[in-house]
Amino acid sequence: MPSVYFQTFGCQMNAADSDAVRALLSGRGFELCGSPADSDLIVVNTCSVREAAERRAKSRIAEFAGGKKARAGQRLWVIGCMAERLGDKLKEEIPGVDLGAGAKQMERSGEAVEAHFPKGGAYVGINANGGCDVSGVERLSPPLFSKAAVTGFVPVMRGCDNYCAYCVVPYVRGNERSVPYEAIESTVKEKVGSGVKEITFLGQNVNSYNHGGIDFPELLSRMAGISGLERIRFTTSHPKDCTERLVGVVASSQKFASHIHLPVQAGSDRILALMNRKYTAESYRSLLDMIRTRLPRADITSDIMVGFPTESDAEFRETLELVRCARFTTAFMFAYSPRAGTAAASMEEGISKAEKMARLSELIALQTGITREIYDKTVGEELEVLVTERQQKRDLAWMGQDAGCKRVLISCEGLAAGTILKVKAVRSSGMTLIAEC
Ligand code: SF4
To answer: Mean per-residue pLDDT for 123-149?
Structure first.
């Protein structure tokens, strides 16, 4: 059988896209391979959202391209956002890439696979050396390739119309388009039928989902009725589309995780306007109040950026103040880096790299302290945990996630991935809760 090795960079949408391409390839007889050197096809799914992510992907692709000589007929595919952004330049920059398929083409990945590997074809040149080391497959990121996956991703919309000034996503993923309801429903039912207990609905701007008169709150309400689906999550929500009706739906059923990821990015109104975020710090705070009234135990998480062009020290301190008040359970924090083609790329930055890094360290220290306090405060509480995977380093230890977004380590006998059980949190490591049955 021909074999394929996947390397996926970036967000959960990329993980879902890789999963879809893997399914198409496995329908053509490909088996997963744990070692790039032994595989007939290498697929690298790339991220473009930050410069560092592109650098990492390029260096890995160059490594794979350099290793192709050692395996006759090996092919190298690069898909995703960086492939979209670079277009034909990708093959010029890294000779050895056989196919560059951008993120906008992901809905047509079936056609690309069919063009290269027609159903029933002999795949000439593929598998010239035979044999594939599968020993590393377990190490590939779950739930992608885990046979016992109990969690799954389902993209419900793609692209974005928001054009935040710093963000390359609308350019590389295109405008918003929502998946028809029937396709979502059948994908969810198929996943649930294969043992998946928890689905995360994905979209760059998931709460702007709208297809055939069904909006996101309506989609979620319908999904909650699917039998066998135990837990529902979604990401990423834009604050401007996070309505009381949506939060009401989340509060209406225990099936919804008590977790909302709501990127704030900055705490200064001037910076938020420059970013084109379409809300103010005050309206964001009101939104948090509304969510906490409806969902008092909810984990709220966020994305926060420091060092946007012209951000002053006083404006950065407004971000710190908002973070202090918001008490996010966790946050992705990063320093601004310009992305070619975006509105912010043509702005004068006016902040040194050292200053950006100092601000980032200060923000991380503040948020880490808040995260620790929230985890510590949970000790003694009863949690409902979905067990997701065995913890490799310890006997009898399993990892799971509570009904919010907290990681939980459970040590007890007789567990299996997919079990949902009530446990008591007995200790906190600041980023993980340790629980007993
Ligand atoms: S909402 Fe803004 S940050 Fe998010 S994907 Fe769209 S443009 Fe990018």
So the answer is: 53
Block residue for tokens 């319908």: 222
Q: Are 81 and 103 in contact (CB under 8 A)?
A: yes
**Ordered DSSP codes for 335-353:** E----TTSGGGGS---S-H
Question: Do the domains 382-436 and 3-139 match in fold?
Answer: no
Which of 152-166, 197-211, 385-399 is least confident? 385-399
Q: Please report, for the chain, the start and end positions of each structural domain, with discontinuous segments joined by +.
A: 3-139, 151-377, 382-436
Distance between CA atoms of 367 and 385, rounded to whole angstroms?
24
- Least Cα distance to 17 among 87, 101, 88 occurs for 101
Sort 280 into a burial class: Cβ within 10 Å, 0-12 / 13-18 / 19+. Answer: middle
Q: Does domain 151-377 have CATH number 3.80.30.20?
A: yes
Q: Report pTM.
A: 0.88
Distance between CA atoms of residues 137 and 149, nearest Å: 14
Q: Tell me how far apart the alpha carbons of residues 26 and 3 are, in angstroms, rounded to a whole number.
A: 9
Is 10 buried (19+), middle (13-18) or exposed (0-12) by CB count in 10 A? Answer: buried
The pLDDT of residue 53 is above 50: yes
pLDDT grade for 70, boundaries at 50, 70 and 90: confident
* 278 Cα–ligand 1 center, Å: 11
Q: Is 244 helix (H, G, I), strand (E, B) or coil?
A: helix
Average pLDDT of the residues of the chain: 90
Residue owning the nearest CA to atom 1 of ligand 1: 162
Cα–Cα distance measured from residue 219 to residue 221, given in angstroms and rounded to the nearest whole number: 6
CATH topology of domain 3-139: Rossmann fold (3.40.50)
Ligand 1 pocket, Cβ-based, cut-off 6 angstroms:
160, 162-164, 167, 169-170, 204-205, 238
Q: With helix as H, strand as E and coil as C, how does 399-430 read? A: EEECCCCCEEEEECCCCCCCCEEEEEEEEECC
**Which class is 382-436 in CATH?**
mainly beta
Q: What is the pLDDT of residues 337-361, one digit of tens each?
A: 999 999 999 999 999 999 999 999 9
Q: 157 CA to middle of ligand 1, Å? A: 13
